[in-house]
Amino acid sequence: MIRGLVLLSMKFRVLVVGAAVLVLGLGITQVRNASVDVLPEFAPPQVEIQTIALGNSSTEVEELITVPIEVGPSLVGKQVGRYLAGLRRPYGYERYRLPELFSAAVLWNARAFASSHTQLDATGTGHKGFDFRDIERALRQRMDIERTVFSPFPPLGPLLNSTVMWRCRTRSAAAAA
Predict the structure, then answer these.
(1) What is the residue extent of each domain of the chain?
(2) Pairing relation of β-strands 163-170 and 143-151?
């Protein structure tokens, strides 16, 4: 087995060297962008708990708001996953027709077709047609967004991620006025 691997590596040596150079280049770019601390963190691990904080002032309340990303290229992967999940057992979701999928995934336009999020009396019961950017605009009008995180691949932004999270702080009455 090892002999076969060595023989294939020798036969396709240009491909092996090219792959090694590519991995080396990716590693160098990652090292350049990595944050480096001179001393390690000595603080104990912290746990953040999200809860409703009735009775607290607006400056004491922090919220983590998480919503799905249903526009952009990540939608194609999500639709494939939903389709495959539906083959095993019924998987309730609003299906996209091909023109709708093109509009939402390629053109980033979820308003081009009817869904539970684009109607005036929107119930918002499904994800089809949901545009996280609308929520972000509404949040910016009412709250201070301290941090935006995309998951599971934060550096890729909304391109290939399935979820966006905002860490927000409610504005105090004086700041909102």
Answers:
(1) 58-176
(2) antiparallel
